[in-house]
């Protein structure tokens, strides 16, 4: 009986929304500004505004939009829960671009715009830090958000109200790499001796099969390209087309080659309609020594603009010089591609005050790992990264 009633209604159930949508889109297109040809993908947020240049300004009324109860937190970065000092001050700074305003993300509007679309992050733990801020921000608009770990994702969430997935694929070098133990003359496998084989032309398994799933992708690599992760006695050895590259490459030359191959792989394999970002380096703020030499970041305020070169210009040979060096290689690799650059380095260089430092949530953590002057407290600086990324994505989607 009920079936019969529904059947004649059925065409109307479909047609009515379509009609409403049609009328609505007519009015929208009448009022919308004339947008440039959709083929032009490289457009900035607004032709006059560079979101990456500006200054931090104190705004005592500013509040983070999520707190320590967000289920997507990673313990070591959950600075409210770990009772980090200064969290109020850390979150009272607002990034002010030179020629425009950067509002905090409106998660309802953003998810509504993203409906039926997916965003993926690929790279190292600084992209996980970024993702965690994004998930906690978006969850404000959809408390039904569920953990999501498919297609090789390390961490992620599905937002059922909007049918949106946002996830992170861990691939610290982007290229595939694996530990290769050394075999002794007798054929025994040594436990501790060996090399890390990097196939410069093969993407890591973790993101090998995601090409069609995401509408927006944010790539990064950089923080693992150092001798603390891969010491000289356990070096990276680079392979291309399955053969070792001879003569062996230095680490930075290997990075250049990996970037070249990964960029061209992405250009070739990922559909042209996918919005592709490359995030530049997140700066570290170890003061007085490296992470394993009692390096510390107990600062109460952001750095001054005049201090930045002393800290970060590679010619000053400071502890944290690598960020700008690696950025140059990345800049070269993505020049003349349709990647959009997320240049979060400069704005983050100021924020020596905003790392977890000694408040890591575990008593022995500092003794074992040293202070964390690399990742960021959440809520904190990555929330500004989210404001910028969501503004850029929104801009592109509105242009479609
Ligand atoms: C959810 O989004 C996916 C695209 O990511 C789409 O294929 C699917 O049809 C959507 N589901 C619903 C119920 O709209
Ligand atoms: C990717 O997908 C292909 C085809 O479905 C499959 O053969 C391959 O094993 C997958 N690779 C990974 C790393 O999951
Ligand atoms: C770090 O500090 C501890 C305790 O003050 C000290 O014993 C140790 O020698 C220091 N390590 C370095 C590398 O300076």
TrEMBL record:
Its main location: membrane. It is found in: Membrane. Pfam families: PC-Esterase, PMR5N. Keywords: Membrane, Signal-anchor, Transmembrane, Transmembrane helix. Residues 102-391 form the Trichome birefringence-like C-terminal domain. GO terms for cellular component: Golgi apparatus; membrane. GO terms for molecular function: O-acetyltransferase activity. It comes from the Eukaryota. Residues 48-101 form the Trichome birefringence-like N-terminal domain. Coiled coil: none annotated. The chain crosses the membrane at residues 12-34. InterPro entries: TBL, TBL_C, TBL_N. It is a single-pass membrane protein. Belongs to the PC-esterase family. TBL subfamily. This is Protein trichome birefringence-like 12. It comes from Cucumis melo (Muskmelon). The gene is LOC103495354.
């Amino acid at each position: 009986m009920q079936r019969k009633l529904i059947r004649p209604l059925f065409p109307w159930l479909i047609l009515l929304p379509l009609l409403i949508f049609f009328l609505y889109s007519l009015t929208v297109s009448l009022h919308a500004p004339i947008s440039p040809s959709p083929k032009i993908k490289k457009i900035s947020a607004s032709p006059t505004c560079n979101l990456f240049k500006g200054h931090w300004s104190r705004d005592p009324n500013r509040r983070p939009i999520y707190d320590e109860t967000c289920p997507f937190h990673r313990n070591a970065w959950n600075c409210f829960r770990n009772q980090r000092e200064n969290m109020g001050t850390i979150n009272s700074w607002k990034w002010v671009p030179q020629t425009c305003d950067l509002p905090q993300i409106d998660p309802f509007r953003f998810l509504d715009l993203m409906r039926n679309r997916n965003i993926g992050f690929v790279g190292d733990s600084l992209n996980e830090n970024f993702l965690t801020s994004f998930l906690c921000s978006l969850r404000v608009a959809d408390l039904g958000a569920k953990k999501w770990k498919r297609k090789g994702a390390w961490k992620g969430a599905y937002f059922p109200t909007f049918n949106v997935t946002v996830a992170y694929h861990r691939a610290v070098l982007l290229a595939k790499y694996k530990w290769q133990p050394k075999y002794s003359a007798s054929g025994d496998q040594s436990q501790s001796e060996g090399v890390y084989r990097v196939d410069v032309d093969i993407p890591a398994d973790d993101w090998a099969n995601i090409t069609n799933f995401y509408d927006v992708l944010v790539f990064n690599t950089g923080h693992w390209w150092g001798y603390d992760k891969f010491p000289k006695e356990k070096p990276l050895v680079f392979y291309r087309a399955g053969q070792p590259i001879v003569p062996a490459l230095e680490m930075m030359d290997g990075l250049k080659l990996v970037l070249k191959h990964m960029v061209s792989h992405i250009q070739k394999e990922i559909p042209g309609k996918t919005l592709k970002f490359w995030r530049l380096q997140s700066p570290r703020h170890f003061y007085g020594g490296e992470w394993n030499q009692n390096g510390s970041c107990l600062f109460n305020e952001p750095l001054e603009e005049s201090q930045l070169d002393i800290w970060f210009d590679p010619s000053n040979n400071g502890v944290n010089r690598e960020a700008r060096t690696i950025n140059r290689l990345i800049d070269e690799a993505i020049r003349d591609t349709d990647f959009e650059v997320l240049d979060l380095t400069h704005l983050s260089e100021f924020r020596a005050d905003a790392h977890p430092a000694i408040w890591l949530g575990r008593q022995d953590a500092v003794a074992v790992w040293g202070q964390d002057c690399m990742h960021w407290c959440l809520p904190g600086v990555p929330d500004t990264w989210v404001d910028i990324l969501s503004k850029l994505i929104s801009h592109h989607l509105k242009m479609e």
